[in-house]
């Protein structure tokens, strides 16, 4: 797992060998210790280079080992042995040096990186901190503020920035190992005392207390309730205030707390889930590894409203040719300007040239005739979308993949408007489409494996986390969201306020509670959808019957607000009030509270006390229960798919892993018991009836989430 050789006569070369990313598993750590001994005892060797096999230095500790009993030498000791070596040690960084990989490099006396290499300490993203000395060495090397930035965000830097920060000594465009060997030769025999980072004093900015206080506030705001970023700040604070050996003790202490926390488990689950969803499968047996994507050179976008504009930007940023079609001249002009601005801003942020020339605009649908793939993003209206699909079928060349950005409409109905339904697939982007990471790829019963593979591949090119899901009303994300919203409305009817509900959800970790979020996205969006489902018309009568639609309990509260023109932030009033239309700071609205009182009086509802626990259980367990139904029906292939959708598309707090992981953490038996309780209390809400898969899982002894698939006997079902 680590190989030793002697090169150029006097340089020992230790190569990490653990594909695909040379993670520091026990055998690799052991290998380093043994090879180091060899190099140091070889009298011909004057200096040593450490590199990684296959152009990758090291992706860090082996995350798969985290749940297991520790074996092999601890990384912190391996790195101390490297730093203590009496011959110059040089890290040759190619590909990545992340987490423990960068910590290993920081233990070396010199670091040289290839210009394309990426470096970082992303442990915080896994709910941990860089506990192999990273929190103590990095601030000593590059100063407290820069170290805080890298350690608390986990962001990667490319070699040029690493050089500027002082993380590496040299950057090369040539063969990194050769350059490292040259460097090693040039420093052979030189004194090493001034090269051991652990011996450096940590420069202390004069406003140290204020700096840490500010940073603490920042990380708490950024990830509400997440403990790793807080521990990262505390560890760097130890570097700034304590001698190295005490700092290392503090780092270890903080790591132990994080390591045993549910948050680290959740975030590591998410790391593997994010990778697992790319290995998609469908009920018909199509799979990621047997389905070849079609070649895509030119993509067309139809409809340049908010979604179409974002999609166009995201496509152009990948370097693909894009034809953007909007039949309304005024809208087309506005879109051109908006898309160009977004591209220019994005390019400026990323330090690259804007790709404006990749897009051609047209008011004429004929312009898409030679596109390889079309994404329809017109208004969310089935009749209109059907008409567009008929046009696409007539205009496009044979074999063109036809995608719809619908957020809930039946993809199969759209497919039936074409002669080649196998080429039709949903690509459900999330607003703003050039920013949000999630893409739901929706396959219907007739969608071909190649169409799924093509949409998944395009999503990947666009930098999205793509999840393949079956076709049903609302797919995965919006289908579950509907119940979450509905429970929130019911809670208002029963005595809660938007402030109470939002506070409970924000304390749970959501950046915004359900009502603040609805105000931001616009209440009219859901209203239009409900009207389309024949639900959104308000009933003038009072009592319970006025709140029953299609045989189930229904709350018209959102519809009533829309009828008053209260669409949320854009109109300055919604569930909250804002200082002006478009204002962003929500404040409590006395009008809303008296409106709720009269509504309850009209319908004979008596307000009761509702606590945070009930808010969480009602909103989250309703949604989780639907998640189990989605799994049972085979709409999602596994719980990981649902969780990835919720974290990347619906701002579910990452450190809680996703709704299905959360259910596993709470305990399936408890979720079942609470659902039974609420179902008895609300018999007119059929979806609170616990799903049979949940019952089966509990009856099977509540296996851990990784084993749920074994219990989902019938893995998939059709729409
Ligand atoms: C005392 C504690 C000290 C240190 C703590 C740590 O070091 S924690 C680990 C810190 N490192 C990271 O967080 C890096 C995680 N990995 C990545 O960001 C990416 O994988 C990487 C290295 C940038 C490569 O990206 P790429 O897109 O090329 O590949 P992909 O992500 O699909 O990964 C390929 C397969 O490798 C597995 N993998 C990656 N990193 C690790 C790791 N550190 N440990 C174990 N396994 C790792 C990944 O799961 C993929 O596996 P596959 O089975 O093919 O899905």
UniProtKB/TrEMBL annotation:
Keywords: Fatty acid metabolism, Isomerase, Lipid metabolism, Lyase, Multifunctional enzyme, NAD, Oxidoreductase, Peroxisome
Predominant location: other
GO MF entries: (3S)-3-hydroxyacyl-CoA dehydrogenase (NAD+) activity; delta(3)-delta(2)-enoyl-CoA isomerase activity; enoyl-CoA hydratase activity; NAD+ binding
Enzyme Commission number(s) from the entry: 1.1.1.35, 4.2.1.17, 5.3.3.8
Annotated localization: Peroxisome
InterPro entries hit by this protein: 3-OHacyl-CoA_DH_NAD-bd, 3HC_DH_C, 6-PGluconate_DH-like_C_sf, ClpP/crotonase-like_dom_sf, Enoyl-CoA_hyd/isom_CS, Enoyl-CoA_hydra/iso, NAD(P)-bd_dom_sf
Domain 3-hydroxyacyl-CoA dehydrogenase NAD binding, residue spans: 298-471
Superkingdom of origin: Eukaryota
Pathway terms, separated by semicolons: Lipid metabolism; fatty acid beta-oxidation
One term under GO cellular component: peroxisome
Catalysed transformations (reactions): (3S)-hydroxydecanoyl-CoA = (2E)-decenoyl-CoA + H2O; a (3E)-enoyl-CoA = a 4-saturated (2E)-enoyl-CoA; (3E,5Z)-octadienoyl-CoA = (2E,5Z)-octadienoyl-CoA; (3S)-hydroxyhexanoyl-CoA = (2E)-hexenoyl-CoA + H2O
3-hydroxyacyl-CoA dehydrogenase C-terminal domain segment(s): 474-578, 615-702
GO biological process, one term: fatty acid beta-oxidation
Record note on quaternary structure: Monomer.
Family, as annotated: In the N-terminal section; belongs to the enoyl-CoA hydratase/isomerase family. In the C-terminal section; belongs to the 3-hydroxyacyl-CoA dehydrogenase family.
Name of protein: Peroxisomal bifunctional enzyme
């Amino acid at each position: 797992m680590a190989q030793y050789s002697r090169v150029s006569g006097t340089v020992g070369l230790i190569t990490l060998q653990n594909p695909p990313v040379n993670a520091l598993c026990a055998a690799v750590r052991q290998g380093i210790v043994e090879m180091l001994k060899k190099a140091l005892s070889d009298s011909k060797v004057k200096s040593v280079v450490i590199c990684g096999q296959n152009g990758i230095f090291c992706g860090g500790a082996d995350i798969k080992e985290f749940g297991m009993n520790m074996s092999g030498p601890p990384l912190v000791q391996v790195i101390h042995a490297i730093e203590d070596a009496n011959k110059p040690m040089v890290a040759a960084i190619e590909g990545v040096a992340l987490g423990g990989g960068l910590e290993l490099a920081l233990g070396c006396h010199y670091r040289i990186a290839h210009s394309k290499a990426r470096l970082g300490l992303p442990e915080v993203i896994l709910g941990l901190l860089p506990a192999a000395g990273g929190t103590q060495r990095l601030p000593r090397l590059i100063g407290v503020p820069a170290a805080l930035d890298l350690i608390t965000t986990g962001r990667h830097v490319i070699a040029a920035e690493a050089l500027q920060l002082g993380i590496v000594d040299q950057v090369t465009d040539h063969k990194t190992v050769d350059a490292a060997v040259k460097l090693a030769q040039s420093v052979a025999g030189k004194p090493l005392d001034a090269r051991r980072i652990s011996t450096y004093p940590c420069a202390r900015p004069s406003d140290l207390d204020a700096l840490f206080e500010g940073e603490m506030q920042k990380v708490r705001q950024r990830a509400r309730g997440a403990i790793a970023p807080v521990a990262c700040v505390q560890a760097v604070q130890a570097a700034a205030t304590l001698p190295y050996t005490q700092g290392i003790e503090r780092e270890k202490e903080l790591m132990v707390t994080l390591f045993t926390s549910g948050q680290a488990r959740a975030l590591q689950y998410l790391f593997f889930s994010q990778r697992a969803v790319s290995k998609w499968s469908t009920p018909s047996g199509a799979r990621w590894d047997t389905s070849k994507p079609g070649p895509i050179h030119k993509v067309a976008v139809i409809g340049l409203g908010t979604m179409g504009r974002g999609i166009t930007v995201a496509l152009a940023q990948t370097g693909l040719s894009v034809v953007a079609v909007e039949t309304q001249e005024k809208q087309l002009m506005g879109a051109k300007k908006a898309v160009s601005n977004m591209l220019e801003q994005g390019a400026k942020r990323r330090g690259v040239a804007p790709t404006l020339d990749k897009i051609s605009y047209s008011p004429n649908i004929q312009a898409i005739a030679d596109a390889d793939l079309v994404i329809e993003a017109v208004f969310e209206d089935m009749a209109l979308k059907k008409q567009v699909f008929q046009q696409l079928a007539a205009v496009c060349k044979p074999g063109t993949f036809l995608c719809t950005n619908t957020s809930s409409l039946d993809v199969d109905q759209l497919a039936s408007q074409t002669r080649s339904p196998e080429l039709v697939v949903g690509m459900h982007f999330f607003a703003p489409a050039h920013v949000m990471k999630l893409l739901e790829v929706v396959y219907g019963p007739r969608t071909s494996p190649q169409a799924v593979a093509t949409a998944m591949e395009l999503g990947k090119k666009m930098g999205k986390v793509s999840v393949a899901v079956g076709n049903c009303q609302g797919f995965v994300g919006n289908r579950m969201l509907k119940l979450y919203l509905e429970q929130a409305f019911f809670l208002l009817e029963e005595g809660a306020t938007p402030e109470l509900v939002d506070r409970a959800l924000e304390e749970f970790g959501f950046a915004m509670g359900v009502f603040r979020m609805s105000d931001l996205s616009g209440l009219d969006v859901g209203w239009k959808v409900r009207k389309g489902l024949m639900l959104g018309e308000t009933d003038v009568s009072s009592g319970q019957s006025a709140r029953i639609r299609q045989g189930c309990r229904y709350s018209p509260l959102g519809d009533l607000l829309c009828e008053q023109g209260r669409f949320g932030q854009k109109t300055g009033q919604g569930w909250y009030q804002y200082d002006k239309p478009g204002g962003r700071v929500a404040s409590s609205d006395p009008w809303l509270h008296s409106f709720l009182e009269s509504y309850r009086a009209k319908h004979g509802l008596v307000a009761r006390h509702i606590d945070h626990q009930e808010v969480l259980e009602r909103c989250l367990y309703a949604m989780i229960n639907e998640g189990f139904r989605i799994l049972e029906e085979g709409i999602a292939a596994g719980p990981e798919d649902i969780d990835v959708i919720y974290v990347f598309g619906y701002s579910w707090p990452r450190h809680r892993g996703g709704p299905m992981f959360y259910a596993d953490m709470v305990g399936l038996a408890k979720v079942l018991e609470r659902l039974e309780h609420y179902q008895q209390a609300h018999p007119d809400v059929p979806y609170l009836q616990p799903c049979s898969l949940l019952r089966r899982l509990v009856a099977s002894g509540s296996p851990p989430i990784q084993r749920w698939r074994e219990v989902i006997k019938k893995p998939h079902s059709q729409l």
